[in-house]
Amino acid sequence: MAVAFTNPSIETCTSLTKPFRPSLSSKNPITLKRFSVSSSLSSSALQMEEQQRENGPVVLQRPDCFGRFGKFGGKYVPETLMYALSELESAFQSLANDVEFQKELDGILKDYVGRESPLYFAERLTEHYKRPNGEGPLIYLKREDLNHTGAHKINNAIAQALLAKRLGKKRIIAETGAGQHGVATATVCARFGLDCIIYMGAQDMERQALNVFRMRLLGAEVRAVHSGTATLKDATSEAIRDWVTNVESTHYILGSVAGPHPYPMMVREFHAVIGKETRKQALEKWGGKPDVLVACVGGGSNAMGLFHEFVENKDVRLIGVEAAGFGLDSGKHAATLSKGEVGVLHGAMSYLLQDEDGQVIEPHSISAGLDYPGVGPEHSFLKDIGRAEYYSVTDEEALGGILFTFNLSSSVQLTQIAFKRLSRLEGIIPALETSHALAYLETLCPTLPDGTRVVVNCSGRGDKDVQTAIKYLQV
Ligand SMILES: Cc1ncc(COP(=O)(O)O)c(C=O)c1O
């Protein structure tokens, strides 16, 4: 399936403020996709409503010419990176209509990644959530876990590696938390003959040891980061430091819809294939759209990849599930959209876990891929305008979604119900990140009318998490 781009161009820019002109102009301006705002309103949306009264219907680009989603996003970076970001944006825009690039990308996604990924009807999981009267939702899994390297991350890594080649950059850096983005990046670097350096928190290296080995086997250098909590935030900071120093020779394959513009837009577009396929497959399978989409949210790339295609279909509910760690009131969680305040991290304005002085609060999640104090700016925007809903799930509930039995005495009842679900009911061991989305079904399903079609993004497979899970298991 062709990967279509929907990013703004200078010609079509309708920013509420003055237009931004990238230093390198695009040869191939592309059509802007517009988004009508009419959902529940926050302050930025209220501003738009006011404009609408004055000027007629307001359409909003996502992002606008400044790389902003409402007040979120932007480019809060040192001067040294501004040129590289403009260069990247221009390259991305010019590739949007580049037939050769599209052909190459489509071919690799098909023959190397294994797309399209199936939309699988989870019959026994559906049965599990039936109410005593036989009614309940129908649950489908979008099987990104079946992609080469075992997660959605490769969609973006492949496309950015091709972009780097076009930019003539042979040195690739990336950050990783769960190691899935690191493995995806190491894989594409091996495939295209690029030098690869992966920054990873020392704690994450321990809990995702299997992926560290995979990256090294693929020829990447894995650099341990010991600062802070030695997790994803710290790895990202270190990768940005490297990029500032080596920007001439290096492309930074950022692994989520986070960071400075154009990354949130670009990474979203490279993952939008997930939602596009889902629409097509839903049409083939039941002749309609899904009613509810559910995905876990760390930085937010798998969720945005699934949601993007449906943002304008207001009859499709979009649900993101964050990591509540030890609980929302424990102070040890990664539920940025539920508990954060607006701030700036890693080059973008978004919701952020921070204290009263604006210092970043160290997050916690059992899942390395969700253990991040920030979130992609578009999610903050979708939350504020009320288009997407965000909830959270604890470590314990998420583990319940993944494997066997385990010994956490405080809520044995809960885990007895929740644990083993996907593994035992469907023969699919999900990643701990994905397990957060799956665990939310416990809360969601009893509230849904009979026959509601729910698509859960099965963002990755759980092989990498067995080491972590074993610590909690009693088998
Ligand atoms: C399998 C899987 N799912 C989800 C995530 C979370 O990232 P994102 O929110 O960008 O999809 C990760 C991150 O490493 C992951 O490995």
TrEMBL record:
Keywords: Amino-acid biosynthesis, Aromatic amino acid biosynthesis, Lyase, Pyridoxal phosphate, Tryptophan biosynthesis. PROSITE patterns: TRP_SYNTHASE_BETA (PS00168). GO terms for molecular function: tryptophan synthase activity. It catalyses: (1S,2R)-1-C-(indol-3-yl)glycerol 3-phosphate + L-serine = D-glyceraldehyde 3-phosphate + L-tryptophan + H2O. The keyword NAD does not apply. It is an enzyme of class 4 (lyase). Residues 115-401 form the Tryptophan synthase beta chain-like PALP domain. InterPro entries: Trp_synth_b_CS, Trp_synth_beta, Trp_synth_beta/beta-like, TrpB-like_PALP, TrpB-like_PALP_sf. The keyword Calcium does not apply. Pathway: Amino-acid biosynthesis; L-tryptophan biosynthesis; L-tryptophan from chorismate: step 5/5. Gene3D superfamilies: 3.40.50.1100. Its EC number is 4.2.1.20. Its cofactor is pyridoxal 5'-phosphate. GO terms for cellular component: chloroplast stroma. HAMAP family: Trp_synth_beta. NCBIfam families: trpB. This is Tryptophan synthase. It comes from Dillenia turbinata.
